[in-house]
Amino acid sequence: xxxxxxxxxxxxxxxxxxxxxxxxxxxxxxxxxxxxxxxxxxxxxxxxxxxxxxxxxxxxxxxxxxxxxxxxxxxxxxxxxxxxxxxxxxxxxxxxxxxxxxxxxxxxxxxxxxxxxxxxxx
Length: 122
Prior knowledge:
By secondary structure, the protein is mostly helical.
């Protein structure tokens, strides 16, 4: 008996992932806004003048927050790209093997483009 391998997720599956990704995207955007607000708050002093770089503690905190904001920006972009893949009905297909990524992996890392096997082989 010949079995046919599923080549894409069903529209119902894609809708489930769309909802999950939109929830994660909302949280990621809120976190990004928080980091950007923190940076803006630390950059400007009470009198409206930009603080100098002579305060080492503030500089380190700003650098850490800036790095966190950049990571959130990347996450937001990856999640946006995942939504585009859903729209194009190619979501959940491993870019290395062309096979479907497991639903379990997609639920944990919904923006992934690699199956566990492909990720481990890199």
